Amino acid sequence: MKPHVVYFSDEQEMVNLVKLTLSANFEVTPVIGPSSLEDALETLSALKPDFVIVDPNLPSLDHQQLHQRMQADADLEGIRILIVSDDA
After folding, report:
1. pLDDT truncated to tens, each residue of the chain (88 aa)?
2. What's phi and psi for 32, nearest 5 deg?
3. Domains in the chain: how many in total?
4. What range defines the domain where residue 11 resides?
């Protein structure tokens, strides 16, 4: 079974690139523009991924707050986060 990755982004091109790049070795679940921090946390609690990729430029999701809240949650604290931006 492949490790599971959840990718929070609002850029379809980046979603396509990440899926193309990782799909041979990972199961990738993209989440386009979560509506809030709570929405993102609910998604992670439901899916229990092995790691999370976050676009730091999402207006609805502060990646630092996401990390803090994940560390405070016993079910999510061990999940690693990778910050990926399409900024040049």
Report:
1. 999 999 999 989 999 999 999 999 999 999 998 889 999 999 999 999 999 999 998 988 999 999 999 999 999 999 999 999 877 5
2. -80, 115
3. 1
4. 4-83
